[in-house]
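question for whoever is on the cluster today: can someone run the full assembly for these? two chains, 587 residues total. i dont have access anymore since they changed the login thing
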Amino acid sequence: MAAQVFAYIEHKDGVADDTALELISAAQKIYPDGSVTAIVTGSGADLDTVCNQLAASCAEVWKFDSEALAYPNAEVIRKLLAAALPPDAIVLVPHDTFGMDLSPGLSIKLDSVFVSDVVDFEGFEGDNLKMIRQEYSGQVSTHVMGNIASGAVINIRPGTCQPDESQSAAGQVIDKSSEIGELTANRRFLEVVAAEVGDVDITKEDILVSIGRGIEDQDNIEIAEELAKVVGGVVSCSRPIVDAKWLEKPRQVGTSGQTVKPKVYMALGISGSFQHLGGLKGNPFIVAVNKNPKAPIFQVADVGVVEDLLDFVPVLTEKIQEGK
Amino acid sequence: MEILVCVKRVPDTAENEIEVNSDGSDIERDDLVFSVNEWDNYAVEEAIQIVDNVGGAVTVVSLGDEESEEVVRREMAMGANNGILLTDDAFEGSDGKGIAAVLKAVVQKGNYDLILTGALADDGAGQIGGMLAAMLDVPYASVVNSIEVLNDSQLKVGREIEGGNQEMNEIALPCVLSIQTGINEPRYVGIRGIRKVASVDIPVWGASDLGIDPANVGESGARVKRIDYFVADLGEGAEILEGSNEEVAEKLIDLLKAKGGIK
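^ ran it for u. tokens below:
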């Protein structure tokens, strides 16, 4: 008999996150004929709005309403879920900074298997669910078997399971608030400190000349700045450049940085991790320059140049100048 | 403060093209350059800085084959006080839970106030810290990008959340934190530093030293198993421009002009 599948719904300001419908679609990949129960935790009117929204897409919505759940503190929510869920539940969670916080420990508390950052499902072999993940920053993929006989917690990479908009359900919202036990935790949420604002707003630019690890040295950033100048764009970057303190955080493209929507994106020496690509929206024309032909960026780019950016980009800049 | 930092020896993806071997059973491991996992290196630096400020000692532990000793030694050259190597055939093929179970036994053999891991490693799972915390029944925070010691029993930690925002939390000790890159600037390790620790004895522990039943770890205990490696076919991919750098530049300029990439 199929285990019950639950989807943990992230939401903000009364709106379910994009990952909500993706998890519901993932649940259908696991059991094509099964149903899914959405779990929505929070407090007040916003919570009700989200629950009603979700009831249009799944058979059942479990609502947990408490002041203590107003901000999603994974330490508190883990405690709640460990008590509320059946032990053989299959629990789907978005693989983002909340899912990374919640899920590994939840699998221990439920004595279930945990599989992280899953990008696709390939059905069952007995009790084993076959899944696809990536390793080495997306350079290779793997098939993983998880024995779900005593339950599973599965984190799903955002953007990989396309929501099925045609599905509709007249779902039922079940108020589970009375089952909430003690919600204290030894980690207390204080506040969210908003991202700093930089000297340029890369989210408003049409042309981004973006650099990654392949720039190799802070002094080489000049090469990208010169290209940006001749094409009329600005310099942005991937995470390692900010980690090295070579550029300011507001210049970083990615899920942990800015979400940009340029017309043209030049990725210079950027491997193209999913966290980086997650910050790239609006289907830009992507040019990738990377000396590693296996770099994942070439799978999503429109045009690729397999070459060391330090050799190629000065030539490009010079040719553009000549043509002006 | 007594701090344990868990580190892993991994292929350096900045230095290597990772390729799948002919039968898909593994990646090609010949000629790979290995180093300490980047996230773990930030964690060790953070631990050293905390101990510099409030006193205590940093212990670095690595689970892997004998060659993992080199990363333990490297982190000791950075300034970690103690090193432990966890090597045993029984640990091979462990899933995340198996590894966390071994580390739990290590923690229980010591007296640590704080346990750090990297937020991610080569397999991209980011699971060990959270599992270890739950097994130890201590609080956990992931993707930590700032740590402030408030007093003997509490830290203030920042977590890097989406959109470049930072979530601030108060967390009670003992606890487990997974460390994000960029939290600090890891110090350079020179030849002299390596030489200084070259002859330091690093204890090697196996399952029996830790009181672990081999049936519960390694391949026999794993409920999550990687069955193969492959290269995914993700659509058509980029049109690769060929020719000399000058020729490629000219082709690219035409495309950029057509797409509004040159103002």
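summary bc i know u wont read the tokens: The CA atoms of residues 40 and 260 of chain B lie 42 Å apart. Residues 2-221 of chain B form a domain with the Rossmann fold fold (CATH 3.40.50.620).
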